[in-house]
Design goal:
By secondary structure, the protein is an alpha/beta fold. It has helices at residues 3-11, 23-29, 40-47, 72-83, 94-99, and strands spanning 16-19, 31-32, 36-37, 64-68, 88-93, 104-105. It starts with a helix and ends with a strand.
């Protein structure tokens, strides 16, 4: 799915958007509106359905749109999600989300 598709599907509640950047990056630039924060460093535990740390946002089984700052870490994250059987798309970086018309929220 493209970033544009992700923005449209997120607005309809059809996809879970996941930000895998570090907390300090979110503090500086915000995150995609409605996105779930799962830092790449802890992603393996949060993406594993057998883990006690499995993230509740993933329990509904919706497709996942993952992003980071530029697309590199989200590519690694997509591989982790795929390894656990999730339907995932790497939509690149936060800038791609914004260029596709996605809103950004700040804490």
């Amino acid at each position: 799915m493209s970033a544009k598709d992700a923005v449209e599907r997120a607005a309809k509640g059809e996809v879970t958007v996941v930000d895998v950047r570090d907390a300090n990056e979110l503090a500086v630039s915000g995150k995609a509106k409605g996105a779930v924060h799962m830092p790449l460093a802890t992603l393996r535990m949060q993406a594993d359905p057998r883990s006690p740390d499995f993230h509740p946002a993933l329990k509904d089984g919706k497709p996942i749109a993952v992003y980071c700052a530029s697309g590199g870490r989200s590519s690694m994250a997509a591989q982790v999600f795929q390894g656990f059987g999730h339907d995932v798309s790497n939509i690149g970086g936060l800038g791609h989300w914004q260029m596709a018309g996605g809103e950004v929220e700040r804490a």
